[in-house]
Amino acid sequence: MKKEKAKDARAKTEPRPPRRVHLPGFILDEDVGLGSVVKRVTSTFGIKTCGGCEQRAAKLNRWLVFTGSRRK
Questions:
Q1: How confident is the model at residue 48 (pLDDT cuts 50, 70, 90)?
Q2: Whole-Å CA distances, 15 to 10, 21, 41, 46, 66
Q3: Which of 4, 25, 34, 72 has CB atoms 3.0–4.6 Å from 60's, for a disulfide?
Q4: H-type helices in 1-72, by residue range?
């Protein structure tokens, strides 16, 4: 029970940094979030974005980021 409370308190105060996936051959210098990738794919297929799509994209961007090269 105490472990759950400590975990909940830590989760509310410390935002996690996004996980980074390195794709050196596909992405050049800028970071691209997973939400941005999903947004591009859906708009390519003609699906219009809405407020919920923007919220989803923001959450996915905070969760996973694709990078081209390792940070120096």
A1: confident
A2: 9, 19, 28, 34, 19
A3: 34
A4: 2-13, 34-44, 51-63
Confidence band for 21, pLDDT divided at 50, 70 and 90: confident
pLDDT at 9: 60
What pTM was computed for the model?
Answer: 0.63
Residue with tokens 């923007």: 54
Both tokens assigned to 59: 């959450």
Q: Are 68 and 30 in contact (CB under 8 A)?
A: yes
Nearest to 32 by CA among 48, 50, 20, 41: 20
The residue extents of the domains of the chain are: 18-67
Q: Which of 26, 29, 20, 22 is nearest to 61 (CA)?
A: 20
